[in-house]
Amino acid sequence: MSFAAKFLQQSQGKDIFYVVVEDTRQKLAWYYVKVQPGKAHAFEQALKGPTDLALWGQVLYSGYGEASPSNIRNIMKQKFGFEHQG
User: Fold this and answer.
1) pTM of the entire structure?
2) Domain ranges across the chain
3) How far apart are CA 13 and CA 35, in angstroms?
4) Residue 13 predicted with pLDDT over 90
5) pLDDT tens figures, 22-70
6) CB crowding 18-48: b at 16 or more within 10 Å, else e
7) Are the C-beta atoms of 82 and 60 separated by less than 8 Å?
8) DSSP for the chain?
9) How are beta strands 57-64 and 4-10 bridged, if at all?
């Protein structure tokens, strides 16, 4: 499934991204994606248009809605040291 990003934030010093997208049914969804090493810049560029997130690395967590729930944000903070706005 292809998506175009509505919101994107990268972890500091890691290749983990928090991405909010609108899917092909115009439904908002959020993803934490661990991008393959050395491909962070190309991933950011790819998100300017439709792309398949799984082609860029591992989807760690995902769900529907405008933002990830607090329990997932806590897991991301504890496991990966990743905090984000939005």
Assistant:
1) 0.84
2) 4-80
3) 12
4) no
5) 877 888 899 999 999 889 889 988 888 888 888 999 999 999 998 999 9
6) bbbbeeeeeeebbbbbbbeeeebeebbebbe
7) no
8) --BEEEEEEEPTTSSEEEEEEE-TTS-EEEEEEEEPTT-HHHHHHHTTS-B-GGGSEEEEEEEESSS--HHHHHHHHHHH------
9) unpaired
